Amino acid sequence: MSAVYDCNRPETRAEGLAAAASAVRSGRLVVLPTDTVYGIGADAFDSSAVGALLRAKHRGPDLPVGVLVGSWSTVDGLVLGVPPQARALIEAFWPGDLSIVLPHAPSLRWDLGSTRGTVTLRMPLHPVALELLRDVGPMAVSSANVAGRPAPTSVPEAQDQVGESVAVYLDGGPSGEPVPSSVIDLTGAEPVLLRAGAVGAEAISEVLGAPVKTAA
């Protein structure tokens, strides 16, 4: 049976984070609050756990799972290289609502779906998520919804969709408006905004010093 922990209370928050960390390390799924919507997460390096995450969402590997990190420095060990444009965006918007696509380090043994040698990285601006990430390391995280249904903004909404497939639910209260993170691809010759979300194209362009193309 899934366990739910109220992370707005110090005593149950500590207990919940410990239970979530134990679940992640043992290959189980957790639901956690982020600065956008509630996410369903697993150890990014456990392919079986990532597969369970995709099954819980009724989603195939054709839509790969992004990775959340708990610090800027974690990125260096996950990608082939961090170009100046990525550094500038990280400094400007992390922790926050910008996901960055980069070529992943070829030495990494993970299976996040059909990534074609890339990984989508983000550092969320939420204390519960950051504390868990800093404890367990990078997590594969996607919105805690079944494919085709709205992304949840509360634990009850997440429970209604992914139910007992999740071992631990960390309840941080309502997340507010379900605005997704923006996604920018830095794997090509020029930056491409794949998804417009919480961070606008103008703000990204200002940091990069040039207009940003948007995906067709």
UniProtKB/TrEMBL annotation:
<comment type="similarity">
    <text>Belongs to the SUA5 family.</text>
</comment>
<keyword id="KW-0548">Nucleotidyltransferase</keyword>
<keyword id="KW-0963">Cytoplasm</keyword>
<keyword id="KW-0547">Nucleotide-binding</keyword>
<protein>
    <recommendedName>
        <fullName>L-threonylcarbamoyladenylate synthase</fullName>
        <ecNumber>2.7.7.87</ecNumber>
    </recommendedName>
</protein>
<dbReference type="Pfam" id="PF01300">
    <property type="entry name" value="Sua5_yciO_yrdC"/>
</dbReference>
<keyword id="KW-0819">tRNA processing</keyword>
<dbReference type="InterPro" id="IPR017945">
    <property type="entry name" value="DHBP_synth_RibB-like_a/b_dom"/>
</dbReference>
<dbReference type="InterPro" id="IPR050156">
    <property type="entry name" value="TC-AMP_synthase_SUA5"/>
</dbReference>
<keyword id="KW-0067">ATP-binding</keyword>
<keyword id="KW-0808">Transferase</keyword>
<feature type="domain" description="YrdC-like">
    <location>
        <begin position="14"/>
        <end position="199"/>
    </location>
</feature>
<dbReference type="InterPro" id="IPR006070">
    <property type="entry name" value="Sua5-like_dom"/>
</dbReference>
